[in-house]
Amino acid sequence: MQRRETDVLVVGAGIAGLATALSADRKGADVTLVTKAVQPTEASTWRAQGGIAITRSDPDSLKADILDASGGTASETAVDVLVEHADEAVREVLVDTIGVEFDTDSTGEYEFGREAAHKEPRVLHVNAETGKHIHVPFLNYVLEETDVTVLDDTAALELVSHEGRIHGAVLERAGKWAPTFAGATVLATGGIGGLYQRTTNPPSTTGDGIAMAALAGARVEDMEFIQFHPTGCETDTGTFLISEAVRGEGAVLRNAAGKRFMPAEHPDAELAPRDVVARAVMREHERTGGVELDVTGIDFSANFPGLAATCETHDVDWETGIPVIPVQHFLCGGIAVDDVGKTSLDGLFAVGECARTGVHGANRLASTSLLEGLVWGLRAGEAATGHRITTIESPELLDRDPALPANFAQQKFVRLRSVMEESLGVVRSPSEIDTARAGLRRLKGEVDAYVRTRTSRSLYELRAATIVAVLVARAAAENEQSVGCHHVNPSTDTTAEGETMRPSSGS
Ligand SMILES: Cc1cc2nc3c(=O)[nH]c(=O)nc-3n(C[C@H](O)[C@H](O)[C@H](O)COP(=O)(O)OP(=O)(O)OC[C@H]3O[C@@H](n4cnc5c(N)ncnc54)[C@H](O)[C@@H]3O)c2cc1C
After folding, report:
1. Is 502 contained in some domain?
2. Would you say the CB of residue 156 lies under 6 angstroms from ligand 1?
């Protein structure tokens, strides 16, 4: 790995990082885009299914749905930025520049999908495999049509920080590391699904950017708001997602007794906000022993051929009902940023799922995160240009040993994921959160002891995961109110006498 200098260093090559790199390149900046991935499939962007929401010239309607889904907790200012720039960003970048061909109907007009908690059909999609049809052409465009330097299989380990300003990051490739100094550094490292046993995200989503930013002293917010997708399908051969678009078409949820339960739960039944559906699915799972998505009322294989094929690959007979369970899906919180992605530290920006813009509040509306990554990426790319590069002393991690005991990271990850799954899932209890927090702090201490003398990518991913896990547990412990994705159920907390320990307000 060579020591480098660049105007703008972008860490992460999902939709948010690619949009940032494109817009900084258009402003004439020298841009370096790094991703620890070897294949595009290692980004959540590639996996996105349902699509990307636009306003269809009615920004107020999309804004109202985002605010409703968040239970009124989303930031109106941030949502205004999103809806104001949505249609133009999608048209100019995704359609005109990189050539995404969203699905059309027989008349050649766009076919808009409707997803949970959207009052209108407004989701552009390609099949139910929208992510890969955006990610691959976007990556190719940046590689072939811009001056951006793209380095794959290259991980950012730590930010270069001096007197409260960020000057780049230490990058690792093939076991060697060196600093890249940058006028501005943009974190676009995605979500935190790798902290959970059951997730729709790639396993490499270990929260690296959030951990790096937190260690450097950046503000991190709303970490308790982790969205669980109600219809994950867990099999012996892996966990995958059944898009909400399938319920949008008319598929229904049934418990193990074959009974539909969502109509009694919410006026929008299966199309209620995700947090509501996830809690109901979890409850019916525990109460009746299982939940299935019944797709017999729709033309599943014709309308969702990719999902039908995925079911078959995993030996799931979709014709008799797809077994579903809530799975970790999306982080609503993250590194606190303003309307151009600037963090609380000079020289540091964050975009995409690792950033907390305020758009999602306590619960995200479906099909708004690709859009958020695109809109904030384009804005951050512009704002990140024009800053002076300063090279400073090399950080101390440059002298460490790369060796780690065999299976060290794997074993610690098993422990971490089991605590996160058990205690920081769909429904949480105050005492479980407290116990989890103590256990995660101990785990972090054990990992930190190694980080003092050793450096390797897997150790740094583990360190990031433990830091982020502690941040999630702390935020969850400090918020006693049930709101959106953070649902505290004190009735699961009983003393030896069987009394409830701590009340919770809100619903
Ligand atoms: C199965 C699934 C379906 C979804 N469906 C939809 C949908 O239909 N509509 C919608 O709007 N949203 C959807 N989402 C959510 C959405 O896809 C993500 O929130 C969004 O793509 C995140 O984009 P991103 O650019 O922030 O991160 P990602 O796309 O995850 O990219 C992160 C990048 O950072 C890199 N990286 C991470 N750490 C480091 C490091 N230390 N050094 C270097 N590189 C690093 C990764 O390799 C990767 O390149 C879905 C998510 C999943 C998982």
Report:
1. no
2. yes
